[in-house]
Each structure stands twice: as C-alpha cells, then as structure tokens.
Amino acid sequence: MIIKWLRIDSxxxxxxxxxxxxxxxxxxxxxxxxxxxxKDDLRKTLLLQVAPGRTKSYVMTIDKTARCYKNPSYxxxxxxxxxxxxxxxxxxxxxxxxxxxxxxxxxxxxxGMTLISEAVSVSPEDVEAFKELNKRGVKLILQQLPNTxxxxxxxxxxxxxxx
Length: 163
Prior knowledge:
The chain is an alpha/beta fold.
C-alpha cells in the first residue's frame, strides 16, 4: 500500500477529503481507519456515501488497515488514509505502518480542548500523542485544504505553550 497522504480529521470522509484532498494527492482509494466507525454500520454507510463514486472507499479498523498495509496484494494501492486522532497514527505505526508525514486537518472542539486553528483543537492526550509522533521523526503539517497555507504543527503547539 502506498500512502499518498495521511490526514487526521475527526470527520473522517467528508467534502474536503472526498473532493479536494483525494484529487490533490492523486489517490485512487480512501481508507477511513477508525474502530468506532468500522463497527457502526450506520456511520460506516454514511461515510461511504460521501466518498466520490470514482474513488474506492473503505472504512476499516486500525488493525485491519495495518494488515492491509502489510499485505503484498495491496502493494500498488494508492491511498489517502484518514484517521480520527493522533493516537490512531501511533497505533498504525506500532503495527508496522511507515509514516513520515501527517496532515493535521480537522479535530472538532470539545470541552477541555485547546483551539489551535479554526479547524483543529487538541486535548492534553492529543498533545502527548503529537509529541510522541514528533519524537519519532514524523513531520506534522497543519493544513485544512490543499489551497490554504501549510504550517508546522509543532510550532503551533509551541506558540500555544502546549509543548
């Protein structure tokens, strides 16, 4: 499996991913790797309905995504991989998925989180996961859309005194 783009987005598959990112990175497949969505038939169906018809789309657990990544049958599959949290990225890496760069695109605000940008909020648990990703050498990019300015995510966390 060739991961053309790995994005953290709590909405998983939605208009920005389906219409902008998939075309921008040239991926023929979208995989939403999320345990909750993979086990919820309604949510899974809704996510797959949003995906563009010309693109193969799947909603899988983190474990199944890691197994597919390592399966030689899928070695030429160009994928836009989207996960919900930075901990999901760590879980994939811990199972052998090679990750060098992550697009932090959208994490919905909930109570107890800190707003980092108009589309990204982080919890203390998220900050710890991002610090671990950074420690492992993963480049973290804050960018909502392909045509918006990209910035260094760790610098944004530093500017908010979170690291």
